[in-house]
Write a structure and sequence with these properties.
Blueprint: E1 2-6, H1 12-20, E2 28-35, E3 39-40, E4 43-44, E5 47-52, H2 56-71, E6 76-82, E7 84-86, E8 91-99, H3 102-119, E9 122-128, E10 131-134, H4 139-150
Parallel strand pairs: 1-6
Antiparallel strand pairs: 2-8, 3-4, 5-7, 5-9, 6-8, 9-10
Helix pairs in contact: 2-3, 3-4
């Protein structure tokens, strides 16, 4: 299990290959890549700056992964989250989950991403033609995370 927070970009294929290498128990890998959009709330986005509290952020994400491991058969998991100033089309976040079966990998990956959006301490500031603004939490993200608390093991 690994959590990395840094400014540099990541190579999805290389990260997946490294996770698979040498582990014959892995039968499925699910992944998610988040990317900076060029429009948010109807406004053009020139850049987005992500901030975090070093140490606290990694701890929170590790706890999210631990929760996923307690719900599903997770053989390995990786979360890479970028910070600093990013522009549209830049990769922001990578979540990879390995399991023996696809159902566990898919569910754990989705759970981790939903909780990253709502429980990990990151702050986002967008630069638009109208100026800078902090990005508020979205109701849709809160609902996505809540369904895991209300539902069964697999969020249903």
């Amino acid at each position: 299990m690994s959590v990395r927070i840094h400014e540099q970009d990541f190579d999805v294929s290389a990260e997946m290959a490294a996770m698979r290498r040498g582990n014959p128990k892995i039968g499925a890998i699910a992944s998610f890549v988040g990317v900076v959009r060029d429009i948010n709330e109807g406004d053009s986005i020139a850049t987005m700056t992500l901030e975090h509290y070093p140490g606290m952020t990694e701890k929170a994400i590790t706890e999210i992964i631990d929760q996923a491991r307690s719900r599903w058969e997770v053989l390995d998991a990786l979360v890479i989250h970028r910070v600093g100033t990013l522009k549209p089309t830049d990769q922001i976040v990578l979540v990879i989950v390995a399991s023996t079966h696809r159902g566990d990998a898919f569910a754990a990956c989705e759970f981790i991403m939903d909780y990253l959006k709502t429980k990990a301490p990151f702050w986002k500031k967008e630069i638009t033609p109208q100026g800078a603004r902090w990005v508020d939490a979205r109701v849709v993200d809160d609902r996505a995370a809540q369904r895991w608390e209300q539902g069964s093991k697999k969020g249903q």
